[in-house]
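Quick one:
INPUT:
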């Protein structure tokens, strides 16, 4: 069998397709381009079936959000003119 000869074990060819699409998206290839490569009729299929964010991507996204939000906030000293009592 071809899978055995290729050392793929129980992996199906469709699994390879899924992996290729997921990797293309992870590499930052625009979803509409990936859709065209794999022949999906709608980009929604590409994004809902194949786009799975891993934990590292999610952590990086939340870290960037945190940096943006906290970097944009003024410190208490800037808000109240440096007075401890806020008056």
């Amino acid at each position: 069998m071809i899978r055995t000869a290729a050392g793929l074990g129980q992996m199906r060819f469709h699994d390879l397709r899924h992996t290729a699409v997921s990797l293309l998206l992870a590499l930052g290839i625009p979803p509409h381009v990936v859709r065209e490569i794999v022949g999906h009729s709608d980009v929604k299929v590409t994004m809902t079936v194949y786009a799975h964010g891993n934990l590292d991507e999610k952590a990086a996204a939340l870290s960037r959000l945190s940096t943006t939000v906290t970097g944009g906030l003024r410190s208490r000293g800037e808000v109240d003119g440096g007075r401890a009592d806020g008056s």
